[in-house]
Amino acid sequence: MSGGEVAGLVVAVFWAVLVTLLAVVLVRLAGALRQATTLVAAVTERTVPLLDEAAETLRAANDQLVRVDEITANVQDAAANANALSSTMAATLGGPLVKLSAFSYGVRSAVARQRSAGRPERWVPQQTERELIARMVKAEVQAATARRRGGLSRLIGLGAGRKG
Fold first, then answer.
1. Average pLDDT over residues 55-64
2. Do residues 120 and 135 lie in contact, with contact meaning Cβ atoms separated by under 8 Å?
3. What is the DSSP letter of 146?
4. Side-chain half-sphere of 106: how many Cα atoms within 13 Å?
5. Taking burial as the number of CB atoms within 10 A of a residue's CB, which of 69, 101, 120, 160 is the most buried?
6. Distance (Å, rounded) from C-alpha 47 to C-alpha 58?
7. What was the pLDDT predicted at 164?
8. How far is CA 49 from CA 41, 42, 55, 68, in A?
9. Residue 162 has what pLDDT?
10. What is the DSSP letter of 128?
11. Burial letters for 9-29: b for 16+ Cβ neighbours within 10 Å, e otherwise?
12. What is the full DSSP assignment across 39-91?
C-alpha cells in the first residue's frame, strides 16, 4: 500500500465516521422534530378552544358593559328628573310652607300667652282635669281680686276728688 492509498483509506474512514455521526444527529433531530410537532399539535388542540372561550367571555363582558352603560344613562336621567322635581316642589311649596310655619308659630305663641295668663283651655290635650280645674279656680280668684282692687281704687279716687 502506498502513501496515497493510506491517505485515501484514512479519508474514507474519516468520511464514514463523519457520515455516521451526522446520521445519528439527523435521526435524533428527526425524533425531536416529531416530538415538537406532537407537542405543537396538542397545544393547538387545547389552545383553540380556550381562545374561543376567551373570545366568547369577552363578547359577553362587552354585552354586559353595554347594558351597564344603558343603566347608568337611565340612572342619570332619573337623578336629573328627581332634581328637577325637587326644585319644582321647593319653588311651588316653599312659599306656602313658610307661611304655614309662621302661622303655626303664631298660634303656638298665642296659646303659650294664654296659658301664662292663667286662662284655661279646655281643648289642650296635655292638661289633666285636675290641672284644668285648678287653673279655672286660680283665674276666678284673680278676677275677683282684680274687681275688688278696682272698686277700692275707685272709692279712693272719688274720695280724693272730693277732698281736692
1. 95
2. yes
3. H
4. 6
5. 120
6. 16
7. 40
8. 13, 12, 10, 28
9. 44
10. -
11. eeeeeeeeeeeeeeeeeeeee
12. HHHHHHHHHHHHHHHHHHHHHHHHHHHHHHHHHHHHHHHHHHHHHHHHHHHHH
